Every structure is written in C-alpha cells, then in structure tokens.
Amino acid sequence: MKKICVFAGSNPGNKLSYASEAKRLGKLLADKQIDLVYGGSCKGLMGAVADQVIESGGNVIGVMPSSLFSSEIVHQGLTELIEVSTMHERKAKMGELADAFIALPGGYGTFEELFEVVCWSQIGLHHKPIGVLNIDEFYTPLLNLVKHAAKEGFMNPSYIDLIISSTTSSDLLEKLALRDHPVYRAK
After folding, report:
1. Are the C-beta atoms of 1 and 177 separated by less than 8 Å?
2. What is the rounded distance in angstroms from the CA atom of residue 187 to the CA atom of residue 171?
3. Which UniProt keyword terms apply here (predicted)?
4. pLDDT tens digits along 103-112
C-alpha cells in the first residue's frame, strides 16, 4: 500500500481519544511511507491526521472542491492540493488515488464516503481494502446495523466482511495490508 484514503470528521468529536488515535494513525502512515489522501481540511480529525503525517515527514494529498474553500479551511501545509469542482469529483479522485480506505469517526459526510466505497467494492468497481478505526466503539452501532441488514435479508452475509474493523491504528493497518479481496456470493 502506497496511499491510503482517510475519511474523517471535520469536527474533533467529544472524546480526546478520537484525535489521539487519529494522530497515531498519521504517525504510522508517515513511518511506513504511506501517503495520506484525504479531503484537504485543517479542521477536526481531518486536520489532526494530516498535521501528524506532515509533522512526521510524510506526504499528504488533499482533494477539495473549490466551493468548500470558504467553509472548510484548506490545509496550508499539504504536499499536494488537488482542486476539483464537485463532491462527486472529490470522492472519485480520492478513490482513484488510494490503495485502501480508512474511516475515522465522523458524521454524515464520513458515513457517506465510507458506504460509497463499500458499495463500489460490493459491485466490483474496486478491490481495495476498507477499514474503520473503531475508537472507543464509535463504529460498533454501525457494524451491528450492517450485520442486522444481512440477518434481515437485505444483503448477502458475505458482504459483512467488506468492512475491516479494529480499535487501534497499528492493527488496522496490518489487517488492511494482509487483506485479500474476498469472493462474494451472487444474489
């Protein structure tokens, strides 16, 4: 893995552990010489992971629509900033650049980005590993919802494994690196 796309909140959240683990992830990415691809903001968990990669000597590629420049403050220390026109272009570009995906805690935007890459994997548009950093069980309710959807017959149970989960950055990176794309049963 040369580049990992990280989806994360543009807010820091209510627990210090969110930013602490985001920074741990940033340090590990830099130490492993894995470039960070992300949304380009200097705010919240997005900013925390990017700041740590930069501080640790790594490369950070931000992708941001020009329409967000006024509301999301663009990180000024990026290795590269890719300006796009729309959110759709942003997600497509981040997906194109990345070898894997990690979701840190966040809100609607983070959830939407995570589920879009999961859907893309499900239908075979990519075969890149996808993980959630389940800091303080932030993603446990979502992972339970995915299992519930399978139990209720709305998705094939083999698709549950599309999302790799771990509570620590080091374990998640190891799991992503070892991940073979699973073979899914047809509908």
Report:
1. yes
2. 32
3. Cytokinin biosynthesis, Hydrolase
4. 999 999 999 9
**CA 149 to mean position of chain CA atoms:** 22
Read off the CATH number of the domain in which 142 is found: 3.40.50.450
Residue 115 CA: distances (Å) to CA of 35, 63, 111, 112, 172: 22, 19, 6, 5, 18
The answer to whether the beta carbons of residues 12 and 41 sit under 8 Å apart is no
pLDDT at 74: 87
Q: Answer whether 26's CB lies under 8 Å from 49's CB.
A: yes
pTM: 0.94
**Would residue 187 count as lying in a domain?**
no
The total number of structural domains in the chain stands at: 1
Instruction: Give domain status of residue 102, yes or no.
Output: yes
pLDDT of residue 182: 60
Distance between CA atoms of residues 67 and 108, nearest Å: 18
Q: Residues 138-157: what's their mean pLDDT?
A: 97
- Give the structural domain span for 94: 3-178
In a domain, 174, yes or no: yes
Please state, in angstroms and rounded to a whole number, the distance separating the CA atoms of residues 148 and 125.
25
| Count of Cβ atoms closer than 10 Å to residue 162 Cβ | 18
